[in-house]
Design a protein that fits this description.
The longest helix is centred in the last third of the chain and has 35 residues. This protein is mostly helical. Helix 1 packs antiparallel against helix 9, helix 3 packs antiparallel against helix 7 and helix 3 crosses helix 8. The chain starts with a helix and ends with a helix.
């Protein structure tokens, strides 16, 4: 593995740590504040920082282009986030994180149905085993099954729409501009509900929200660097590091030990999505070689 790929993996593990930390902070704040207020303050504080990054990178903000996609991405993300973090009040953090690993599975289905991507055998195999892993995590029909798990699954499905909008925007919009609009619109969309449930933060509580904004921006930078440096095929198996960080937070701060079903189901899902990513990469390489041969 080349040095840039090691750096890319380092960025991806950093992303897993930052996202896990964001989830833990949300879980800490939700008993105190409404999820819309938390999201509003997080994205509000992040927006000017992202604007400065846009200016420093020399990117020009084009207000009229692709705004429909920006709006849809922000709205789908906001609804998914509200459902996910609301459900965290009733479900253990490791289990919620494991269910969230289903996002690539839903994204794959939407890519086939919506974007017209090819339904290859590897995708069908990945989807089959991925949803088998999801059944293990959900503990369907067992005493461990929780209704909150269904809410997490719904949130994961909505997050897959966000991935589709990101994919469509990536063809035309620079990542930093894309993220600026995302934060800006997310804060605007969450403002009405945030005001309705508003509770004035006191003293150090403001630091929690500013910290969330900093984590949000750093997470975006980390995942952007990771995707730029390393193929998705290499990154997918390292998704499991997120569960390691979550297990630490949940055990130390929330007294929520990770279960065997959560670990086993997560392994199945991550292996299935890694298998699909590998075969999709090989298929794309074969297509490019054929095109070069024809030319």
């Amino acid at each position: 593995m080349r040095r840039p790929e090691y750096r890319g993996l380092g960025w991806y593990v950093t992303h897993a740590f930052l996202f896990s930390t964001i989830a833990a902070v949300y879980k800490h704040l939700i008993p105190l504040f409404n999820v819309f207020q938390i999201t509003f303050l997080q994205t509000l504080f992040a927006t000017p920082v992202l604007y400065v990054l846009c200016v420093k990178s020399g990117q020009k903000l084009v207000p009229l282009q692709h705004q429909g996609l920006h709006l849809k991405r922000s709205l789908s993300w906001l609804i998914a986030t509200a459902i996910y973090f609301y459900a965290l009040q009733f479900i253990d953090l490791p289990k919620a994180t494991a269910i969230k690993f289903s996002v690539p599975l839903f994204t794959s289905i939407l890519a086939i149905l919506w974007l017209g991507e090819k339904a290859t055998p590897s995708r069908f195999v990945s989807l089959f085993f991925g949803f088998c892993g999801m059944t293990v995590i959900l503990e369907t029909g067992l005493p461990g099954f929780e209704v909150a798990s269904v809410l997490i699954l719904i949130a994961s499905f909505l997050w897959s729409f966000t991935d589709i909008f990101i994919k469509l925007l990536s063809k035309h919009v620079d990542p930093i501009i894309k993220t600026f609009y995302f934060a800006c619109y997310s804060s605007l969309f969450s403002l009405p509900m945030a005001l309705y449930y508003w509770k004035m933060p006191l003293g150090t509580e403001w630091l929690w929200f500013m910290g969330l904004a900093a984590l949000f921006v750093c997470n975006i930078i980390s995942v952007s660097h990771a995707y730029k440096a390393v193929d998705l095929t290499v990154l997918m198996p390292f998704s499991f590091t997120q569960l390691i960080f979550i297990a630490f937070y949940s055990t130390v701060f929330f007294n929520e030990p990770i279960t065997l079903n959560t670990v086993l189901g997560s392994c199945i899902i991550i292996c299935s999505t890694s298998f699909c990513a590998y075969h999709e990469r090989k298929r794309q390489q074969t297509i490019r070689l054929k095109e070069q041969t024809i030319l």
